[in-house]
Amino acid sequence: MLKKIKHTAIFSLLFTFVWFVSCKKTEENLTPTSTTPDVRDSVYIIAQSLYFWNTNLPSAANFKATSYPTADSVMRVVRTYSPYVNGKYQDRWSFAIDKTTWENYVNGSSQDAGIEYSFASSTDLRVKLVYSASPAGLLGIKRGWKVLKINGVDGTVANIDQLNTELNKTSQTIVFAKPDGTQQTSVLTPAAYTADYVMNPKVFTVNGNNVGYFAFDSFLGESINGQTAQSTLNVLDQVFAQFKTNNVTDLVLDLRYNGGGYGLVANYLANLIAPTSAIGKVFAKTEHNSLYSRYNSTNYFQKNANGLNLSRVVIIVNKGTASASEELINGLKAVMNVKLIGNTTHGKPVGYYAMPTMNYYAFPVAFRNVNANGTGDFYEGFTPDRVQTDDVTHDLGDANEACLSTALNYFSTGILQGGTQSARVSAEIENYNTKISKDRLKITVNNLPKN
Predict the structure, then answer these.
(1) Which of 213, 222, 275, 446 could covalently link to 231 via disulfide, CB atoms 3.0 to 4.6 Å apart?
(2) Which architecture does CATH list for 194-349+369-427?
(3) How far is it, in rounded angstroms, from Cα 109 to Cα 62?
(4) Does position 10 have pLDDT exceeding 50, yes or no?
(5) Interatomic CA distance for residues 188 and 111, integer angstroms
(6) CATH of domain 109-193
(7) pTM of the predicted model, to two decimals?
(8) Which tens digits make up the pLDDT trace of 306-364?
(9) What are phi and psi for residue 283, nearest 5 degrees?
C-alpha cells in the first residue's frame, strides 16, 4: 500500500522526490531549508517539483505557503497556476489530506450511516445509495425508497437547508415510504463499516443472450499482502468468473457514482472487459512534466483468465463518473465499441501520486493519461450517446431503472437513440442534489514509480 515516511525537516526540492520515489534513506541527503518544519511549505516544495504544470509555479519565497491556513488550501491555490481554459482552471483537483483520513478512504473504511440521498423532483427525496454493511444497509434500507421525513422535516427542496442541518446531527429518525406502499421508520447513527465497491451483480437474458450488470462504486480498496487494492481485484475476479460461467456476452457497467481510484484497478477491469484482440495494445500512456519524463510509462491490455472477450460494452455515467472511471472509458474506446448512457462525465484526464510528508499526503496533479490513439484531454468530460436521468426511484440493478432499461433495450434492438428531456429534468434539481449529496474525491492515483 502507501509508503509511510516520517519527515523531521523540510527537504530540498530534489531530495523530496528522490526520497519518496527511490526510498534512499541516507542522512547525507537531508538538506533542511527551515529549522521550523511546516507541512504547508513541504507540500508546496513537492508541487514545485512534481506538478504537471510546475513551470508556472512561482518561487517558494514569492508563493509564501505559510500565508495560507492549511496544507490543503496551499494545494487549492496551486490549482490556479494551471492553464485557464473555457472559463476554468484545468486543475480543479490538487489537494492535501491528513494520513489517517486518506488511508481510511482508500480502504473503504467509514464511520457514518452509509447512506446518500438525491431528489427525484422538488417534492420527492429518495435514497440514492446504501452500503450493505453500513448502519443503513443493516436495517434493510434500499436505494429508491422515498424519504418522507428526516427528524420531522419533510423531504422537499423547500426544506433543503433544514434537511442538511438534520443530516449533520449525530442521529436521524427517518420515515421512509417503501415501493410496496408500506412505511418504515429507522433511527440512523454513525458506525464503522467497510464500503462494498462492487454492487448488485446480475445477469439478464435479452433475445436469448446473457447480459451482465454490476455497479462499481470505486477503483480503490484494501491492500492485501502489500498488493494495492487486492480486495477489489479479488471481488472483480469473482464477479467476472460468475459472468463467464453464465456465458455473458454483453455487459452493462454502472459507473454513475464512481469518482475513480487506482489506475492499476482501471487497467485490471479493462482486461476483464476488452476483446482478446486488444491484448498487447496500449491501455494508457502516463505522461509527466519535463523534470520527470523519465517516469513516463505505458500500460497494456493483458490476458485475464476471467476476461469476457466482449466486442461492445454499455457504461452508465454522469457527472460523478470521474478520473480512473474516465481513464477506463478512454482506454476501452480505442479497442472496442463503447456506448455511454446517462449524462456528461466529470472530465478529469490527470492523476496523482500519494506523496507522504509529515502527517499528510500531498496530491499535486502529476501526470496525464492518453489512450492508444493519443486521446486524453477530456477536460469537458465524455458526452453520453444517450442522455438519461439518474432514476433514483429504482434500485441499482433493477431492470426498470431508466439507465439500465435503456441499456437492455439497446442490446435488444441495437438502437441507442439520443434524448434531451431527461437532461432538462435533471438540471431543474441539480443544484439541490449538489447541496444534499456528499462530494467525493475525483482521483486517479498511481503507485510511486521506481528509478
Answers:
(1) 222
(2) Alpha-Beta Complex (3.90)
(3) 39
(4) no
(5) 12
(6) 2.30.42.10
(7) 0.91
(8) 999 999 999 999 999 999 999 999 999 999 999 999 999 999 999 999 999 999 999 99
(9) -90, -50
